[in-house]
Amino acid sequence: MRVSKDIVLLFFMSGPPVLPEDIYTTEVLKTSIHQLKRVMKEVDPSGSIELEAEVEFALLHLLDDFVYRITQSAVLCADHRGSDALEVSDLKLSLEMD
To answer: pTM for the full model?
Structure first.
């Protein structure tokens, strides 16, 4: 099965990504794509799903955006508690609210 970029584009309709494009240096992309392929092997051990390069990039961008939003929300939770330390409970609350 081949996943095309048209499917992933649906996720981008909610607005522009938070992180700038220049964050993806060659080294970051190489490492991130390697990790994405590792996760794909766990999800699909048979290797029947193949991602196009554009889909890989889109998924990485979505994941980075998700982590950024959850982290920012968790920081606000910690700040609301009057703490300057981020705790697991802050992240859990942010995930529940997302």
So the answer is: 0.66
Rounded to 5 degrees, φ, ψ at 27 are -65, -40
Task: Read off the DSSP letter of residue 89.
Answer: H
For CA atoms 79, 12, 5, 94, give the dihedral sign: positive
**Residue segments in the chain with a per-residue pLDDT below the cut of 70:** 1-21
- What is the CB neighbour count within 10 angstroms for residue 57? 19
Which of 65, 58, 60 lies closest to 19 in space, CA to CA?
65
Q: What residues contact residue 23 under an 8 Å CB cut-off, 6+ apart?
A: 64
Which letter does DSSP use for residue 18 in this model? S
